[in-house]
């Protein structure tokens, strides 16, 4: 290299947008309804902080950067009680406040149009109804109606899973879901296993396509090891996606397979509340 010319440091390659989307989809396990920059302030904080924000299902995911593959914070807004009107501030930004059981969350968008759009989508997924706001644009309303239908279908899938998981107080049925089934995303299953290792290390959960299932396990070897396995539903049977596929007649048999194959090192994850309700535990 000629003298006097300094070599420029190489830039760290940035992941492609499609790969970022796929990674976020994998981590959250929820459909994306709206995204964009928002300034966020919790009721206990003094200042706003800018995040790249995603509305997925009834969750808000906050990313430090638009290209960050993993979120830094998340907030469940399913229990939203109300939202204030969108109002402009002295800088031309638009603010509104979400009223939640555990406090308030103030959101600030670049302008009133985006503020009303965010509020409209949030109300649509939490109240399962498109808000009657005459100031919303036709295109925004069309998208909200599309999101409403997607969210209704997602809720129906979760409700079907919950209904299968309920046990008769007098007897068990062959269609009862295993006690370690939880209607959670991949990331939520990981967090459950990490926070409460004494409750077990195997969770059965819905698959990312809402049609099949998945097993998430947390092994304690030299270091904690997390693994995920697909469980495909085919007719009246279930297929575990291993190097050599294993076909079993029920989801309980799927759970039992992992337990027996590891000689009891894997144990179904059962919360204290659920264990108290189930005399078998």
Summary?
The chain is α+β, with helices and mostly antiparallel strands and 281 residues long. Helix content is 30%, strand content 27%.
Computed over alpha carbons, the radius of gyration is 23 Å
| The CATH superfamily title of the largest domain | Pleckstrin-homology domain (PH domain)/Phosphotyrosine-binding domain (PTB)
Order of helices and strands: HEEEEEEEEHHHEEEEEHH
Helix content: 25-40%
Cα end-to-end separation: 71 Å
- Shape from CA axes? elongated
State the total count of DSSP E strands. Answer: 13
Fold-level CATH name of the largest domain:
PH-domain like
Number of helices: 6
Low-confidence segments, ≥5 residues, pLDDT <50?
Answer: 4-13, 165-175
CATH architecture of the largest domain: Roll
Percent of residues in beta strands: 25-35%
Structural class: alpha+beta
Rounded mean pLDDT is 83
How many discrete structural domains? 2
Identify the CATH class of the largest domain. Mainly Beta
Largest sheet geometry = 8 strands, antiparallel
């Amino acid at each position: 290299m000629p003298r006097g010319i300094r070599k420029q440091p190489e830039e760290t390659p940035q992941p492609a947008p499609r790969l970022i989307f796929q990674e976020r989809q994998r981590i959250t396990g929820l459909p994306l309804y709206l995204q964009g920059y928002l300034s966020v302030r919790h009721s206990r904080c003094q200042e706003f902080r800018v995040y790249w924000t995603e509305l997925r299902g009834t969750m808000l995911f906050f990313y430090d950067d638009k290209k960050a593959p993993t979120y830094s914070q998340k907030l469940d807004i399913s229990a939203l009680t109300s939202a204030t009107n969108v109002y402009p501030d002295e800088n031309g930004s638009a603010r509104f406040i979400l009223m939640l059981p555990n406090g308030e969350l103030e959101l600030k968008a670049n302008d009133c149009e985006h503020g009303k759009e965010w509020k409209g989508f949030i109300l649509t997924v939490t109240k399962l109804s498109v808000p009657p706001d005459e100031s919303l644009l036709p295109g925004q309303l069309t998208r909200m109606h599309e999101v409403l239908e997607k969210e209704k279908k997602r809720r129906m899938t979760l409700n079907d899973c919950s209904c299968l998981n309920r046990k008769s107080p007098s007897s068990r049925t062959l269609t009862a879901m295993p006690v370690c089934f939880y209607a959670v995303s991949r990331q939520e299953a990981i967090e459950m296993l990490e926070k409460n290792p004494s409750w077990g290390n195997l969770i059965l959960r819905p698959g990312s396509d809402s049609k099949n299932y998945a097993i998430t396990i947390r092994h304690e070897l030299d270091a904690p090891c997390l693994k995920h396995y697909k469980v495909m539903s085919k007719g009246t049977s279930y297929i575990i996606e291993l190097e050599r596929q294993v076909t079993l007649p029920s989801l309980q048999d799927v759970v039992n397979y992992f337990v027996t194959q590891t000689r009891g090192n894997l144990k179904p994850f059962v919360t204290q509340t659920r264990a108290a309700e189930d005399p078998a535990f």
